[in-house]
Structure formats: structure tokens, C-alpha cells
Amino acid sequence: MRKRQIFVLGLDDFQRPLLDELPQADECDFHGLLTMERVREGDRIPITELIDEALADLDRFDGPVDAIAGFWDFPINCLVPILSDKLGLPHKPLAGVVACEHKYWARVVEQFVIPGAIPPFEAVHPFAPDAASSIGLEFPFWIKPVMSYSSYLGFYIDGPDTLAASLGTIRNEIGQLAEPFDRVLEMLELPEDVAHVRGDWCIAEGIIGGHQCTLEGFIHHGHSEVYGIVDSLRVPGGTSFASYRYPSALPGTVQERMTSMACRTVEALGLDHSAWNVECFWDEGTDQVWLLEVNSRLSESHTDLFSKVDGVSHQSVMLDLALERKPSMPTGQGKYAYAGKFFVRRADDACIESVPTADEIAAIEHDIPDTRIVLKVEPGLWLHDLPYQDSYTYDLAWIYLGADSPTDLEERYREAAERLSFSFSDEADRTGIDLAAPDPHVREANL
After folding, report:
1. N- or C-end of the chain: fewer Cβ atoms within 10 A?
2. Three-state SS at 62
3. Secondary structure (DSSP) of 302-367
4. What is the structure's pLDDT at 445?
């Protein structure tokens, strides 16, 4: 039997080894299609050019193309169905993908499916002269573009001054994602009550919060299932993520309620033949569960976590769907009982003077087995030039770890983080890193 030729958009050196470890790898050859550097280079995403380049690369391939897959945010999550459709390959519906990713469209559907589990919301045109006065929500609330990821251009609004400043920043920067997203919207016939909300619009939402988590699932022939839940912890007193922890520590009954809510929502949004993840909150004080947002893909941030705990990355789900099979994920067959992705962050802008060397990172990874460290900065870079950061901190590095207990996981993180040496050109404090352990019970507002 010939091997299936699978093209993965944005495939990088971190994710490739996880694909090669999958049980399906014996029957597949994996090929990268468009690098992430190409997809997100410059100030704009040239989505029409990317489509043409990808099709040209596929046309030059000497052999059959059996599937196109991807697990990154926009535009890759939209490129997968667009390219697959042009080649006549099975794929998730573009309309279902966009309905999940368009934050206002998703809320319009959710208010009919789970009306008690979403905050009040409004569409906002940030370029309208009366943008600020048109918002009927009471302070505080969040405002963010209808197309965004990694909390990019998401702002906590606590009064008129914050709103005015945030709208100014949004107007200056929203085009980076709005313009290519509009090209995708032009490919679809949008619902009448959503069609006017284009890529350069925002959504304002009331505050929800509690213990945050992400449900990883899939939908196959219209039926959704959840196979894992990852906790999302924020920095103490802040909104930026501190770490992702798997498996979730939430009560089983809460996980069951979230699972039912998430599956019903994904099915109502019209997604199919796709991995997905849904972000939720549980307010322990009121026992309220909230749905924050739906993503029409698996989370690439969680691939290593599933590999460490369950024995294979949940890229296995993506591959099974690409091969037109119902996914089947193992549980608890990995080397570790717990795994985490930890963010090393800095709050203040600065110019990077030095970063940990390759030898220093290799030594940490050797001394703490199965640790993987990804640097996000390089010398000479100003932090404000990093693309698609959240609105309040900057990523310096990611640390992936496994352990036999939550305590051991935290200790391994501290050891690794304390050995990462960064220096900055404009501060007397040459580390600039807050290693405070995130409190798993801190309650933060939604992004």
C-alpha cells in the first residue's frame, strides 16, 4: 500500500517530531506547505498570494496529494478548506470555520443555543465617528476585533479614557488581520444579521471570568466529542496567560457541563470534519459555566502536553480526520501524569541585549528530561516589534514540561525559568522576568 501524502500548513521544527511519533506516521509522508514566516511576514497577510503560492507548490509535487491539514490560527485555519476545495479533497466547510472564528457571528449563534452561558455583546465599528458613544454596555467590558488570536488588540475597558485610547490603537493596527479576513468573507454568503460586520469591526462583551480551561474535541459526520481538557492559568493579578496545564483539575461535573455546552455549540455553528477547541470559564462562587470562544482547529500549544500525558499528540485527531476516519485518542498512556506549557513574560518594553545560548538551553533540556524550550525573541529586537502579542505583556520564551505531580511540574518550571538568562538594554534590572507562580484559583476577566 502506498503512503498517503499529507501536506501540513505552517509545519515547523517543533511540531514535526510530534507528527513523526504518531501511529499514523507509518502510513503517511508529511510535507510542509508554506512556512509560518511566509504566512505572517510583514505588516499584512497576503492571503491571495498565499493561496496561489500553495497551489503552485502542490502542483509541482511529483505525486498525489491526499490531504491538506493545519493547526494554526488565521489564515491557516481558513487556507485548509480553501486549498482542499480547489483540489477536490475532503475538508471542513469554510463557512463553518469562519462562523467559529468570526467572534460576532459565533455569538449570534450562541445566543440561541446557550443563551445563559455567554456575556452581553455588541458589534462595534471602531472607525465610526460615534464608536465610543454607540456602545451600550456598562463599564467595565472587553473590546476586541471580530478576527483576532492570542488576545491581539484585546483591551479591558474600565472607562471613557481607556476606551478612547484602545479605539485609537485598534484603528491603527486592525488592518493587519482585517484586510485578509475580508478576502475570506468575500468567498461566503453571510447571514443577513452578520453580513455588515466585516473584518475591521470589533465586538464589545460584558465581563465573564473564573477558572479558565480549553476543551479539545472534534466533529465527525455532525457529531462532536471531547477527548481532553486543559487548564489555562493567568499571571497573578493580570490577564496574560502564565501556563497551560493538562489534565484539568476542574471537578468532573463541571467538565461534563462544559462538554455538553461546547459540543452543542460547535454543531450549531456548522463546523464538520474538523478538530476544534472551545475556551470556557467556571465561576466557582456561582457555579456558572461560560463559553468564551470557539476555534475551528486543535490548539498547537497543547500538542506536546497530550504527547507527554496520553502518549501521542492530538495531531492524531487531525490526521484521522484528514484520512476520513473517526478519531480515537488514547488516555493516560504517556510518560507523565501531568504536563504544562509555561510562558516566560516581561511586562515592560525594552530592547533585547542577549538571550540564552543554544548550549545553555541544551543543558537545561538535558538536566530536566523531556523539557522543550522555545525562544520567542532575539538580540537587537525591541519587544514592541513582536507581532500579535497580547495587549499587556511580551513573550520571551515557552517552556514545555512533564511531571508526576502538579508540585513537581511547578518545581521543574522554576528550575528551568531561573536558568534562562535574558538581558535588556534599557533597564538596571537585567532579568526583567517575573517568576511568580500563577495562582490556580485567581479569577480573571475574559480576553
Report:
1. N
2. coil
3. GHHHHHHHHSS-THHHHHHHHTT-------S-SS-SEEEEEEEEESS--BEEE---HHHHHHHHHH
4. 34
- Beta carbons of 156 and 445 less than 8 angstroms apart: yes
In this predicted structure, the answer to whether residue 290 has a pLDDT above a threshold of 50 is yes
CA pair distance 156, 363, nearest whole angstrom: 40
Q: Which residue has the cell 440561541?
A: 112
Which residue segments constitute the domains of the chain, with CATH numbers given? Answer: 4-91 (3.40.50), 119-206 (3.30.1490), 209-445 (3.30.470.20)
R_g (Cα) of the chain, nearest Å: 21
Report the distance separating Cα 227 and Cα 295, nearest Å. Answer: 15
Neighbours of 245 (CB within 10 A): 23
pLDDT in tens, 230-284: 999 998 877 789 999 999 999 999 999 999 999 999 999 999 999 999 999 999 9
Whether the model pTM is above 0.70: yes
- Indicate if the alpha-carbon torsion angle 124, 270, 34, 58 is positive or negative: negative
pLDDT digits over 206-231, tens only?
999 999 999 999 999 999 999 999 99
The grid coordinates listed for 136 are 451600550
Go through the chain and tell me how many residues it has.
447
C-alpha cell at 409: 511540574
Q: What 3-state DSSP class applies to 154?
A: coil
